[in-house]
């Protein structure tokens, strides 16, 4: 679908989070085509598509979505070799360094999670930071990909890549369909507007509270509330209505 020539809505979705949202995904950050940083100046962390079937959401409409994400850096392989980083493509070379500061004018600081009870020994590892996030699910029509992919841009400037980290994601709203574009510049301008729409949309109270959801702190991965969570080899995705 070619991008319609009309102004965009500044905010996406209703003032409360409504079904099918929230949608919860988790998976390791894998290598994509390397275009995000190099060609667009907007890095996008890819996670495997396999998890869409876990919660019965393989038919989730392609499009641009927003929500919150967190990273578990402890799953990054200590010795980075080409075989230790899975890839969404047939390219097995090591990823080149991403450009991480491309959208500095649009960035937001990570959200500190709400204060949590201290354990007597206070030995728990620090809770992960939560990042406002915009993502694309689909075939990237501008690039005419033949495989669907999940491409996630965290609204934060990182000092280093995080291939291999476990990314947990809560999708809270839909922004727009994927479009084809007349130029790379037009695609980049729309993605930058998606970032602004995400910032405004998440600023609403009913959305902000999801930044403290336990899914983002890995607790459901540890089985504490019986969520559907495979431990290895893919993405967990389930739809929880709390
Ligand atoms: C917020 C956002 C919106 C996007 N919208 C589109 C789109 O409308 N059309 C499209 O072809 N690709 C779109 N993309 C995907 C980019 O083309 C993709 O992230 C880029 O090709 C980098 O891919 P790579 O990580 O595999 O290198 C979007 C990506 C993001 C993060
Ligand atoms: N703000 C960010 N959002 C997403 N990924 C980022 C960000 N900053 C750095 N990265 C890193 O950049 C990588 C994505 O860069 P990109 O050029 O799109 O490559 P690829 O095609 O391999 O995904 C991510 O996997 C991650 O390690």
From TrEMBL:
UniProt cross-references to InterPro entries, sorted A to Z: Riboflavin_kinase (IPR023468), Riboflavin_kinase_bac/euk (IPR015865), Riboflavin_kinase_dom_sf (IPR023465)
Cellular component, GO annotation: mitochondrion
GO biological process, one term: FMN biosynthetic process
Limits of the Riboflavin kinase domain: 18-203
Region feature (Disordered): 1-25, 103-127
Pathway: Cofactor biosynthesis; FMN biosynthesis; FMN from riboflavin (ATP route): step 1/1
Reactions it catalyzes: riboflavin + ATP = FMN + ADP + H(+)
SMART domains named in the record: Flavokinase
A molecular function (GO) term: ATP binding
Keywords: ATP-binding, Flavoprotein, FMN, Kinase, Nucleotide-binding, Transferase
Record's keyword annotation contains ATP-binding: yes
Family: Belongs to the flavokinase family.
Function: Catalyzes the phosphorylation of riboflavin (vitamin B2) to form flavin mononucleotide (FMN) coenzyme.
UniProt name for this protein: Riboflavin kinase
Organism encoding this protein: Lentithecium fluviatile CBS 122367
Organism taxonomic ancestry: Eukaryota, Fungi, Dikarya, Ascomycota, Pezizomycotina
């Amino acid at each position: 679908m070619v991008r319609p020539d009309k102004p965009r809505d500044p905010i996406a979705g209703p003032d409360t989070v409504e079904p099918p949202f929230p949608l919860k995904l988790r998976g390791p950050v894998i290598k994509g085509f390397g275009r995000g940083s190099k060609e667009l100046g907007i890095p996008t962390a890819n996670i495997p598509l396999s998890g869409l079937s876990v919660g019965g959401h393989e038919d989730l409409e392609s499009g641009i979505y927003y929500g919150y994400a967190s990273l578990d850096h402890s799953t990054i392989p200590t010795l980075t070799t080409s075989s230790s980083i899975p890839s969404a493509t047939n390219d097995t070379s090591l990823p080149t360094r991403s450009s991480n500061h491309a959208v500095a004018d649009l960035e937001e600081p990570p959200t500190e999670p709400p204060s949590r009870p201290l354990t007597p020994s206070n030995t728990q590892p620090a809770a992960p930071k939560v990042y406002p996030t915009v993502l694309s699910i689909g075939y990237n029509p501008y690039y005419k990909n033949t495989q669907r992919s999940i491409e996630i841009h965290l609204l934060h400037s990182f000092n280093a890549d995080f291939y291999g980290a476990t990314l947990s994601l809560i999708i809270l709203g839909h922004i727009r369909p994927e479009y084809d574009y007349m130029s790379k510049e037009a695609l980049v301008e729309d993605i930058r507007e998606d970032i602004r729409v995400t910032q405004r949309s998440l600023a609403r109270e009913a959305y902000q509270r999801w930044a403290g959801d336990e899914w983002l702190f890995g607790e459901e991965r540890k089985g504490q509330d019986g969520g559907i969570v495979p431990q290895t080899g893919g993405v967990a995705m389930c739809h929880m209505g709390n």
